[in-house]
Amino acid sequence: MVSRASDDAADAARPPAPVEGVAAVELIGVGKRFGSVVANDGVDLVLRRGTVHAVMGENGAGKSTLMSMLFGLLEPDSGEIRVDGRPVRFGGPLDAIAAGLGMVHQHFRLFDTMSVADNVVYGAEPRRRGILGRAFVDRRAADARVRELAARYGLDTDPAAVVGSLSAGARQRVEILKALHRDARILILDEPTAVLTPSEVDSLFAVIRRAADAGTTVVLVTHKIHEVLAVSDEVTVLRDGRVTGRFATRDATGPELVRAMTGRAIAEVKNPGTGTPGDAVLEVEGLSVSDGRRDVVRDVSLAVRRGEIVGIAGVSGNGQHELVAAVLGTIDASAGRIRLMGSDVTRSTVRDRRAAGLAVIPEDRRGEGSAVTMTVAENAALGHHRSAPIGASTGIRRGWMSLKAERSQARQLIGDYDVRTSGEQQLIGSLSGGNAQKVVVARELSHGAPLLIAEQPTQGVDVGAIEAIHGRLLDYRAAGNGILLVSHEISELLALADRVLVMYGGAIVASFSAAEATTERIGAAMAGAAAADGPVDGVRAGAATDAVAAGAAADPVIDQGDRA
Ligand SMILES: Nc1ncnc2c1ncn2[C@@H]1O[C@H](COP(=O)(O)OP(=O)(O)OP(=O)(O)O)[C@@H](O)[C@H]1O
């Protein structure tokens, strides 16, 4: 262990530096089109040296396109990019890296079987001469370089650890080190907190501030207002490809940022609570799932009743995804029973479970959730050609939906959910992530199944769409359906769930009613701490510590640094 980033977490709370200084990067009138879609239109952006600049905007606002141009992944159609005052034209990311840029993408680009140090130096290895004069990778120098960078920026890292065994937070630190090793002076972080626990977010913010203080220019792409307010010095807001707001963060307020992003003020959805829940739509009893080596779900029991939202909190990789997969029937349980609407489906096929009244918003919207090479219209109907959406004129003949019905259903969903697309014939793979998610959510809710499993339903989705999706989920519950909501966002669970269960090391280690649930309690249980206030809802205090002990070697996602 090289250093403890969390020691510096307090730094993150410090007020940002005054916004002035030399422009490290200027984008002047930058534009980009994709066919008829104007992704960026005359965007001006100035990134000052040694500051943290947040780039905010709704899904499809044009943030990724802008960053892709800055990093040389896309060529601008118009405008100019200047680095240190000089105009640049990047032929690709290598040119951008050579000019001092680094980018940490949402989806990490690391080699799982290689060590942290090997990943960091890959492609830019320190070398030494062997006895025959041949150059070898100098592993000692690589380790020393990683240690030196990690210490300088407060990145908690073990150079020898194998990347495949690390948590999302630790992998992200490797990506940041990779950029720093290549002497990035301008660091672009694309939605970096999406995969982190609250304490990892604090550590990341401390690293960001430290890097800025050392002179690095940091660009933070995010949807999250509290993050912008907590860590940035300046904010640029995009809407429909144009700049709609520029603020010094110290002068900005949350509502102002929301207005710039959406053009309107929005209210946060609060969990209004339910009446008395009805019959159980899902009952899971003593469920375990093995990956062949160990139990990734351990003796889980829970029930979801009509008119109830049950939330599952947890750092990703603690068995939530496998629990959902076992309920869906895409993987087998090694022990336990699953009942849907009172019927035992433990050995039923996915199709039979869906037919019994199960809808699902999957986590992997690009893989399981949608077919990227199909149009919005085809996706909207996917998996439901044999059943009509509630209230739609069916257009179904002999079990198949007519093309006309498919298109009109898609147009209605596009309107209802404000999906930003050039039309229902656009390929879903070319929609922004948030807009693709809206198509999946709309499709799954349109059929009124008594049980909905929603896995990260608003991940990567902007505030406006979060509000819309939360509202739909609450309506869905109010209509007498049950929802199992798996989320990394504690605020989402607090806003929606009637009960929050926390998974850690494959087991449920804490359970809170809506009244008992707080960010601190859920966050502590997610990090593997025993429920501080003693037994809650029949879950033993200390169960979490047992889970740590039992799952210590078996839990690859919580790295030792995070546990310490
Ligand atoms: N390769 C592409 N082909 C066609 N359209 C595209 C392509 N890439 C982006 N777009 C469109 O350009 C617009 C801007 O997309 P972009 O991905 O830059 O937005 P974003 O703000 O990053 O959104 P999100 O937060 O959802 O990722 C969107 O309407 C999107 O559908």
TrEMBL record:
Sample GO molecular function, one term: ATP binding
Ranges for domain ABC transporter? 25-265, 282-530
Recorded hits in Pfam families, A to Z, give: ABC_tran (PF00005)
Q: What PROSITE patterns has UniProt attached to this entry? A: ABC_TRANSPORTER_1, ABC_TRANSPORTER_2
Known Gene3D superfamilies for this protein? P-loop containing nucleotide triphosphate hydrolases
What the entry lists under InterPro entries is as follows: AAA+_ATPase (IPR003593), ABC_carbohydrate_import_ATPase (IPR050107), ABC_transporter-like_ATP-bd (IPR003439), ABC_transporter-like_CS (IPR017871), P-loop_NTPase (IPR027417)
The signal peptide, as residue positions, is none
- Give UniProt keywords alphabetically: ATP-binding, Nucleotide-binding, Repeat, Transport
Q: What's the protein name? A: ABC transporter ATP-binding protein
Origin organism of this chain?
Herbiconiux gentiana
